[in-house]
């Protein structure tokens, strides 16, 4: 479903974006034919066609086309999608999923066969939502092929982040204010820190952060890496986590603008996400909605801060010399 929603955003974008002004790619011993012909692609009256050239994870190109046809029935746009490679000469855009470009998996430099036909008014689009740390093929070998990128990064041609920041309207602000008069999310939660990780070996070395944090505060982890996998449905897995005040929304790698469902899911459960970002563009996330581990000199300092924040909203503040921390929840 997430893949379908993200790609539908691209479908709508291509309907309103002028592609007649795009320059043809520079051919560097490429095995495709460039055909120059005139075609008006800028108006809403022109039904644009998108060809899915590669599969996307477990979805075949045929399944992608079928799913998007169903989705487009609910839209006010005119657009056609296809997986028939024989139609390459008549489509306006060709979509390639980066991870599925490599034959036999990532880590090789052998790519799937690319179209043998190319029009100057046709755009080739590279789609990716994965961290580049895990795309170990030679990306330089793709230089000169693609016109557009559709990624989570803000500097992509079409930016499709995992979540979207938007301001509340006046009605929503009033409704939320009334709700907060009678609700206290932290007070309703009885546990402190949790996380769910099933990708054990990662470039961010999350296990080191978690093991060190456990020395100073109680942390209860779920997932295959901790022998407590969630084998139920989505609701059952969410129920395992929702009673905790803080969620370790640590990404498996530190890449520009790479903020996944870990952060957004924590907010949906009314938790404070604990993150490990280093290079995030403005407006990617909600200001003052998270705690970043890199704002602390060590995990002991982070644990002390979590203990303070966790108590602040309780009916009685703990006794003792607890001072207001210098670092606020970001």
From TrEMBL:
Domain of life: Eukaryota
Origin species: Potamilus streckersoni
Signal peptide: 1-18
Primary localization: Golgi
UniProt keyword list: Glycoprotein, Glycosyltransferase, Golgi apparatus, Membrane, Signal, Signal-anchor, Transferase, Transmembrane, Transmembrane helix
Keyword Transmembrane set for record: yes
Sequence ranges assigned to domain Fucosyltransferase C-terminal in this UniProt record: 187-309
Family per record: Belongs to the glycosyltransferase 10 family.
Subcellular location: Golgi apparatus membrane; Golgi apparatus, Golgi stack membrane
Coiled-coil portions: none
A single GO cellular-component term on record: Golgi membrane
Pfam family membership, one: Glyco_tran_10_N
Tagged with keyword Ribosomal protein: no
GO MF term (any one): fucosyltransferase activity
UniProt domain Fucosyltransferase N-terminal: residue ranges: 47-163
Name the record gives this protein: Fucosyltransferase
SUPFAM superfamilies: UDP-Glycosyltransferase/glycogen phosphorylase
Protein topology in the membrane: Single-pass type II membrane protein
EC number annotated for this UniProt entry: 2.4.1.-
Pathway it works in: Protein modification; protein glycosylation
């Amino acid at each position: 479903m997430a893949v379908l929603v993200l790609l539908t955003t691209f479908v709508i974008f291509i309907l309103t974006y002028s592609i007649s002004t795009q320059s043809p790619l520079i051919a560097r011993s490429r095995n495709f034919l460039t055909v120059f012909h005139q075609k008006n692609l800028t108006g809403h009256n022109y039904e644009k066609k998108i060809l899915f050239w590669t599969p996307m994870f477990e979805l075949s190109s045929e399944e992608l086309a079928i799913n998007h046809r169903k989705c487009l029935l609910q839209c006010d746009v005119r657009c056609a999608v296809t997986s028939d490679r024989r139609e390459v000469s008549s489509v306006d855009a060709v979509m390639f999923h980066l991870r599925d470009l490599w034959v036999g998996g990532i880590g090789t430099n052998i790519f799937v066969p690319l179209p043998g036909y190319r029009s100057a008014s046709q755009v080739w689009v590279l789609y990716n939502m994965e961290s580049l740390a895990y795309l170990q093929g030679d990306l330089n070998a793709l230089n000169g092929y693609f016109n557009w990128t559709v990624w989570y990064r803000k500097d992509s041609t079409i930016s499709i982040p995992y979540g979207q920041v938007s301001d509340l309207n006046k009605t929503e602000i009033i409704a939320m204010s009334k709700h907060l008069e009678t609700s206290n999310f932290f007070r309703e939660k009885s546990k402190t820190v949790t996380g769910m990780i099933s990708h054990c070996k990662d470039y961010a070395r999350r296990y080191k952060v978690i093991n060190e944090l456990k020395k100073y505060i109680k942390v209860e982890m779920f997932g295959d890496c901790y022998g407590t996998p969630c084998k139920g449905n989505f609701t059952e897995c969410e129920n395992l986590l929702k009673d905790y005040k803080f969620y370790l929304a640590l990404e498996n790698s530190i890449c520009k603008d790479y903020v996944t469902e870990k952060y957004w899911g924590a907010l949906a459960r009314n938790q404070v996400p604990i993150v490990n970002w280093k290079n995030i563009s403005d407006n990617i996330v909600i200001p003052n909605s998270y705690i970043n581990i890199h704002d602390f000199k060590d995990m002991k300092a982070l644990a002390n801060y979590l203990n303070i924040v966790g108590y602040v909203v309780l009916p009685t503040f703990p006794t003792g010399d607890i001072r207001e921390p210098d670092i606020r929840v970001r």
